[in-house]
């Protein structure tokens, strides 16, 4: 046989080995192993939880528990949410195999299901803290299940609906709010342009007024003015809020918001509107982000959202807010609710990631310490504890802080608006950054299993990454907070008045004196750590003000002096810790772990525990794991 024939014959033999069934010849039989009889803790009959979890839950969720359970119930009942039963338990999770277009249509079907069951009732037409808390609670539940669904609803209700509510007046409320709640139209929110995202004041879309016809004319004058990333625009939205420069008699009155139809009720794009797709994203593919161009589109004069400023039929510009900066700030009001929901949802997602990673670490074993000995639980490795437990402790702190932010928001008054803007920006940035770090650690802590989409942590990284960018880029928000703190500091120092709000009140007290001997017990005490932070903040603020003033003395404007002193004055990260009843908890399941002894809980503000009646429960131990607390504080400190 020549070489060619030998190779052909060899290939045929290999192929037939693959194709023809052969008797299986095993030399060893699988012997029973502990792994095969493994049962995850939630399925085991002996319940390891030694305290009332409902009390813990009511502390953490904080409000509207029945509403949350009702919505969880609706979600698990419907096949639209990929219900699966395993081991007697029901699981729901988005299907990661679907195409972008399938995901977008599923989002709309899920919205229809929730709409029919009254989930959105009162979200825009209801008023008062109770209605708002119900809305926030239900939105949190939705975001835990499917981020695309939450964002798509958020754009329609919080951004489009919020803009109509906050920037519009009675004529807009009567016409649009109930219709929005009932999804008779689908709204989107076109603020960002290709050329201007964070710098909203720089948007290039132009709107002029035609007094002969009583219409506004909206135009996209150049490619960089195309609206970009607009959630809902690519496939479904019928109306948009357009943010545009308003020119009256040739004079620019700054950015204003208008209602503009972009599709008819059959889904056809309106005349003089062009729409394109933003394409596949690293997450959130159930949301149809799109680009919009306006080619001299005409809308009635009444479509200007006129709570801040109006234009008379004859074309006179009317506004009770004469200060251009204040007028612009008023137009950004709808973004505050978005920041509150993003901050809160980031906390819930970190909780899910940590629950998954910690449960896994309580079941997964790797390496044995003795020959033929049992392998060690991952969570019994000190390094594993140090990776996950500080993150767990931090998320308890953030959970309470997020609750406090929600309470501030729903009980807002005109006087508290500035503080809410600052706190919501700070928490949005801090919690979303923390969420991404937490998810990455959890992903790695689960090893290869963390990569599997079904285990959720991996997809969360893609889904929630955008939290640091939309509704205010985190770095840009941090700069705004720094400016606000700087302004507060300068005003109080110059006018010799006490600090009030923004977490700077500690500066009304004498400068803390640190003990000369730093023993371990002192280092671990929360009083010492707070003193340290207060000193740090005083020092950073003082130095920051001095540097800005130095540049101003050299002729720089306040704005440019501020930018010259940046990079980020990171004291802002800490400024709100005073308002954080930060607590350290470790789940009771961990108490069986070597090295941790008992489960423990420590809080610098026990109010929450007293309220929940948990104090005195057997698992409550005053005391703390010093290193964990230090990590928490340092992280807030930046
Ligand atoms: C998935 C998704 C959905 C979105 N949905 C909507 C929507 O529905 N409607 C809408 O209007 N917009 C939407 N956006 C747009 C979003 O709000 C913007 O992307 C965001 O405001 C940031 O703008 P930008 O992308 O232009 O980034 P830029 O503003 O160009 O920022 C780029 C980088 O520069 C930095 N930077 C910017 N300014 C400064 C400065 N002064 N000093 C130092 N650093 C600076 C930022 O920190 C950032 O890292 C969405 C975006 C995404 C990704």
From TrEMBL:
Q: Where does the record place a coiled coil? A: none
Start and end residues of each Acyl-CoA oxidase/dehydrogenase middle domain: 188-297
**The UniProt record lists the keyword Kinase:** no
Q: Name one GO molecular function term.
A: acyl-CoA oxidase activity
What's a Pfam family this protein contains? Acyl-CoA_dh_M
UniProt keyword Nucleus, yes or no? no
Keywords, A to Z? FAD, Flavoprotein, Oxidoreductase
What InterPro entries does UniProt report for this protein, alphabetically?
Answer: ACOX_C_alpha1 (IPR055060), Acyl-CoA_Oxase/DH_mid-dom (IPR006091), Acyl-CoA_Oxase/DH_mid-dom_sf (IPR046373), Acyl-CoA_oxidase (IPR012258), AcylCo_DH-like_C (IPR036250), AcylCoA_DH/oxidase_NM_dom_sf (IPR009100)
Domain Acyl-CoA oxidase C-alpha1 positions? 335-486
Q: What family classification does the UniProt entry report for this protein?
A: Belongs to the acyl-CoA oxidase family.
Protein name, entry field: Acyl-coenzyme A oxidase
Give the source lineage, highest ranks first. Eukaryota, Viridiplantae, Streptophyta, Embryophyta, Tracheophyta
